[in-house]
Amino acid sequence: MTTSTVDTTQELAAFLRTRRERLDPEEFGLPSRRRSRRTPGLRREEVAELAAVSVDYIVRLEQARGLRPSADVVEALARALRLAPDERAYLFDLARQRPRNADKPATTAAPSLARLVADLSPLPAMLMNHRYDILVWNDEMARLLVDFGTLPPSQRNAMWLCLKHPEIREFYADRERVVREGIAHLRAAWAAHPDDQALTGLITEFTADEEFARLWAERDVKVNGRGRKVMRHPEAGLVELDYEVLTPLEDQDQRLVIYRAMSEESRLALGRLFALPRR
């Protein structure tokens, strides 16, 4: 798969088709028909009726024939397709109907944010940009995951580590869920930053990985603000963690990630890990 640029017209068409095809007509109270449909989900005619647009308009959108829907039409389509909030934002980004930050993506952390990450010790914390590049981290995060300072900058990326680092690849008890959630975030970032060639290059590189390519093709869109991860740490053993993702108001393309132990056993395991001498 080639992802040299974000072709928003083609992506908008594909996204609308996949969202339409996943819907169950019975949930909309539409009359049941014999299943002679070539594809699952709603027909174009049904989506057109629900969104109060013409069938021809839906056909032209799904065939990538150069339409740029208005904000009102995008909102109507989002309601008709019952999009989740992150999917709705993704649709608005593809239609170029959301204001976007014209600044270049950050590659370093502001000094105040770097100090904040350090001050969050003993909680493991790190700051990432929208590409999942890891900009700054505290000692606890380095002890928990990997000593980022020993890696070249091109490898200080959370998705790269999960896909390609020989130790981190086997780190997560529920690996596919972690990768799936990361890809859903990258897809949202890809639509919001169509001119970010570094992000496009990363995605192109990642699609050489069979697992990434398969999940990327599902077009899931989700930006997780919190969740849980279970790690098989080589020194601490099984560790269950909650994570929280915060967005600085003045750096809204950056993400502050903070881990906390879910249980007393995990808290004690982290304490023993952080007390070990550095290798």
From TrEMBL:
Residues 41-88 form the HTH cro/C1-type domain. InterPro entries: Cro/C1-type_HTH (IPR001387), Lambda_DNA-bd_dom_sf (IPR010982), MLTR_LBD (IPR041413). GO terms for molecular function: DNA binding. Pfam families: HTH_31 (PF13560), MLTR_LBD (PF17765). Transmembrane segments: none annotated. This is HTH cro/C1-type domain-containing protein.
